[in-house]
Amino acid sequence: MEMTFSFSDRLVLLFDCWSVHSPTGLALSVLVILLLSVLYEVVKMGKAKVLRRALLAVPPTFSQDTLLGPNEGDSGDGGGGDSEDSGGQEREAMQGRWFRYHVGQTLLHVVQVVVGYTLMLAVMSYNAWIFLGVVAGSALGYFVVYPLLCVGYGAVASHPIQ
User: Fold this and answer.
1) Which of 49, 72, 125, 149 has the most CB within a 10 Å radius?
2) Which keywords does the record carry (predicted)?
3) What is each CA distance from 17 to 1, 14, 32, 93, 131, in whole angstroms?
4) Which residue stretches of the chain have pLDDT < 50?
5) How many helices (H) and strands (E) are present in the chain, helices listed first?
């Protein structure tokens, strides 16, 4: 296997069964890799959106102590009435929301890692066309996805161009 970039239309990409022997096959392979690069950028944006929703769902006063529960030595107000029950229910609801967002971010992270390593291995085929497909897909994905991320944060409305 060559260890320098080449512009060949013959290569084996990722698996033995993904063998390219023609310019048409190479073009289709570059298109698939380009779409994987776009997917990588979409997943990155998805992780940021999920993080934003998680931060909005959990109020700023929601501390780590609230997530984990009160300390064993903390006796509270000693009343043991309805205020403790409603506080406990609220804490359980917050824990459930936080956990769902955490699971969502974890799954998106796994997808991002798998797609990222797949793209890295594709680039390691040392085919310049595949490399350019990864770069173009990343640029296209970022160009398309980034405005969607900014709109959610209100960056466009709060920072007008003067």
Assistant:
1) 125
2) Copper, Copper transport, Ion transport, Membrane, Transmembrane, Transmembrane helix, Transport
3) 16, 9, 15, 49, 20
4) 72-73, 76, 78, 155-162
5) 5, 2
